[in-house]
Design brief:
Regulatory_RpfE, 2 domains, seven-stranded mixed beta sheet, Alpha-Beta Plaits, single chain, alpha/beta, Regulatory protein
């Protein structure tokens, strides 16, 4: 195989790699990340930190990731600092294709079986990853809910245990929020708004009442599991023809895997060795291990996952740069309202007087 002489550039998206501001110094003190600290400290000086509205309908990493692909009805790549995001990424049709579902016409939304927690004076959406539905159990809930959708003329399709789809052609203007942006908050702020919102709320309430006394939830209660007591809707998108782009994509996160159809090549479950061997000219790698512990406030797990990322990713990628297997590396590091961009090259790594440090990750 001929050696690829083109410059190799890998961009790493690290959601929630920025620790919560009030905990940042204490958390970073606990970490031993020499490779990441070297990449961060020796990045070029023209790094940028952008701030976003904390009530936006998508998290900063979701905005950034979706803006890398030609999606309809979303935010332009040149989103201004502090500019509000008025809708969740238009991902439904991309997700449908990724699950081999037909999507030739119509306007579609994603639906996730969810648990809404009753707090003292408001309702809170919990992390949808914690639902942990089997295919058999998900089918049972889907089959129970399907007649309610049929009664109001809404086509409902099953994708997998965690992701279903609803067609609503008249709801093009409906504003929705991603489940991760909503997670842990009073859902009133993030509920759908606009055209179709009242109809959706009515249908959602009917599903909630149906599932409240469903035998499956009784079994889950005995097993100590969360009740599946609602559906979360987001990602509305019109059916369009997909067109591959020029990026080489590695390890897209849940909910965003459909973006792979807009890439030249896609590799799921890739290791650092796979990425290095690919020598990507315009590679994009997502490392999403920190999302769940950050959303649920499990900071000891956040620390453990960062140490895992150091061993499995940052150390081998730093070595690859030092050995000339990668030429440039960009780090896109986020929290719930910021994006920090750092750019490292083989040349900047030679600046030995810049001691390894994570201080650039501090607010």
């Amino acid at each position: 195989m001929p050696y690829n002489l083109a410059m190799s550039h890998l961009t790493i998206l690290l959601p929630f790699g920025l620790p919560r501001p009030e905990l940042a110094r204490d958390l970073l003190r606990e970490l031993k990340l020499p490779a990441l600290a070297t990449l961060v400290a020796r990045a070029k000086k023209e790094d940028s930190r952008r701030e976003f509205d904390e009530f936006a309908r998508a998290l900063p990493h979701e905005m950034w990731l979706s803006a890398q692909f030609p999606l309809l009805s979303f935010v332009p790549a040149n989103l201004l600092p502090g500019q509000d995001v008025q809708n969740s990424p238009a991902l439904a049709c991309a997700a449908m294709r990724a699950l081999s579902l037909p999507v030739e016409q119509g306007n579609w939304f994603m639906l996730h079986p969810a648990h809404i927690h009753i707090a003292r004076d408001h309702l809170v959406l919990t992390d949808i990853r914690q639902i942990d539905l089997s295919e058999v159990d998900a089918r049972e809930l889907f089959d129970a809910a399907a007649p309610l959708f049929a009664e109001v003329g809404r086509e409902l399709l099953y994708g997998d245990a965690n992701t279903w789809f609803m067609r609503a052609d008249g709801w093009h203007g409906l504003l929705t929020s991603t489940p991760d942006a909503t997670c842990g908050h009073n859902i009133d702020i993030w509920m759908p708004q606009g055209e179709g919102a009242r109809d959706w709320r009515k249908l959602q309430n009917e599903v909630q009442m149906l599932w409240f006394a469903h035998p499956l939830n009784e079994r889950r209660q005995i097993q100590g599991k969360q009740a599946v007591n609602s559906l979360w809707l987001w990602g509305g998108a019109p059916a369009t023809v997909s067109s591959p782009g020029q990026r080489e994509v590695f390890n897209l996160p849940d909910g965003f895997r459909g973006l792979g159809q807009y890439a030249r090549t896609v590799l799921a479950n890739a290791s650092a060795a796979d990425v290095i061997a690919a020598r990507p000219e315009n590679g994009l790698l997502t490392l999403d291990l920190l999302i769940q512990p950050a959303l649920t406030g499990e900071w000891s797990s956040w620390l453990e996952q960062l140490q895992t990322l150091e061993s499995n990713w940052f150390a081998p990628l730093l070595q690859a740069m030092q050995q000339g297997q990668l030429d440039q590396l960009s780090l896109i590091v986020t929290d719930s309202s910021h994006v920090l961009e750092l750019h490292t090259s083989r040349f900047s790594l030679k600046k030995f007087w810049r001691k390894p440090s994570l201080t650039r990750l501090l607010p």
